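Q: Hi! First time doing this. I have a protein sequence and I read that you can turn it into a structure. Is that right? Here it is:
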Amino acid sequence: MSDVHPLLLAGEWVAGEEVQEVKAPFGGALIGRAARAGEKQSAQALDKAVEAFQKFRKTPTHVRRSILLRCAALIGERHDQLVDILSREAGKPVMFSSMEVKRMKLTFELAAAELTRFGGEVLPVDFDDRAENCECVVRRFPIGVIAAIVPYNWPFNLAAHKIAPALAVGNPLIVKPATSTPLSTLALGKVLTDAGVQPGMISILPCGSAVAQKWVEDPRVAMVSFTGSPAVGWHLKAVCGKKKVSLELGGNAALVVHEDADLERAVQRTVIGGYGYAGQVCISVQRVFAHEAIYEKFSAMLAEATKKCPYGDPMDAKAVCGPLIDETNAKRVEQWINEAVKEGARVLAGGSRDGTVVAPTLIDRVKPSMKVCCQEVFGPVVTLEPYREWKDVLRRVNDSTFGLQAGIFTRDSDRIYQAFQELEVGGVIANDFPTMRVDNFPYGGVKDSGFGREGVRYAMDEMTELKTLFTRHSV
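A: Yes, that's right. Below is the predicted 3D structure, encoded as structure tokens:
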């Protein structure tokens, strides 16, 4: 494929100042070429976004809602095409690519639905005798230009979780796709332009980090929404000045399997949550703690299921675990596995690498200091440890610099409530894996996992400011 995919600058498809090749993680074939923006085009996009905000900030709700619904309809019509490019470009197995495209459609539908009830409230104030015959109206107003930086692992739906809420409330966006997956996010851009998003309200600019950092530093940008690595995220926060920031920075999600759990379901969900899409999910199952009463049985069941987990070619409809995004990351995961073994860990299943593909890997006899435990593997590796006391396992889950989501399997509602009270995470998933996310609930973490919340309604809150109108009536 020799054609260069243009970039989206203020609603117009234009050639870039540079060109990059995009290659498949599985097999390394050339998928396409993408235009890249330089500083001049970046500055143009920001100028246009500032102009668009002044022009379209008061767009009627019904217009914004109709655009979002058209986006959702077009995503549905182009489902197969979008799945194909995502699977080839990101190496995401087709079953998960299809799921992502369906969720992206739902995300736009949720944003449209929120516009039927989002906007503000009337507060009673005459409980205070100073406010007799007075009325207080609180409304939300768009804040301005949003700079959105999207990761490679969810180039559709994580982009949608920034774009749909922003457009819903009337904010223009400048979006930086991941270097590895620009074609997917640009394909979403085609949906947006075909759906009638107003000129200047959306730019999608593949570009270098130095170019994107200028958005972060520019005082005309009202908010930075970033999903990616902790090192980059905290750096952007340090240089962003006074603007709003939302950071989702990943984790090493824990899953607790108590002695009363449904073991078959816990095993099945661990395999999907730990090895699905080669573990390249911020809330993939990484650290599993099983109660000592069921540890040996659960360990054997999980090891057998790990060995049977289909992996390899992401275009294979049966594949659960595809390739890592590149060979550098595959080698890193392999190195971390080997380091753990040298420090006393045992590989119960997997552990091998072939190019960018790491076999689904289960490890026990681990220590908290091992990289496979204390850092984010972002690969198809699950560690397994026994525990005795519920209170102790909650402490061990919290023994992490991350705090995105955690999962627990138990039939005891008191234990679930205790976990909800004590776990230092943004979300507790009871009787399912920590990889569970429904697109309307608040999603985000604490500690090194970042701050701020996505989830359509909650992102709309983040992207607006409250303004109060207090009126004293004469009658």
